């Protein structure tokens, strides 16, 4: 992200840019395989942390 934002600033494009970074809400768990949401409990569509907690970032240079 740092190199991307620096390049946008160097090319004078940062003021017209909005960067959105987000994550999916946990991996599916099944008997035939699936994902590990460790250290969080739960899975996709559950009410535990593994199903609802995600990281997100919104950043940009736009100033009205």
Automatic annotation (TrEMBL):
Q: Which InterPro entries match?
A: Alkaline_phosphatase_core_sf, ARSB, Sulfatase_N
Superkingdom in the source lineage: Eukaryota
Sulfatase N-terminal domain location, by residue? 1-59
Keywords of this entry: Calcium, Glycoprotein, Metal-binding
Q: Which Pfam families match?
A: Sulfatase
What are the protein's GO molecular function terms? metal ion binding; sulfuric ester hydrolase activity
> Which protein, by its recorded name, is this?
Sulfatase N-terminal domain-containing protein
Organism, as annotated: Tribonema minus
């Amino acid at each position: 992200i740092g190199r991307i934002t620096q390049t946008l600033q160097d090319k004078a494009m940062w003021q017209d840019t909005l960067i959105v970074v987000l994550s999916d809400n946990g991996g599916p768990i099944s008997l035939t395989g699936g994902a590990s949401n460790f250290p969080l409990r739960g899975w996709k569509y559950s009410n535990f942390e593994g199903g609802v907690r995600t990281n997100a970032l919104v950043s940009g240079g736009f100033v009205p």
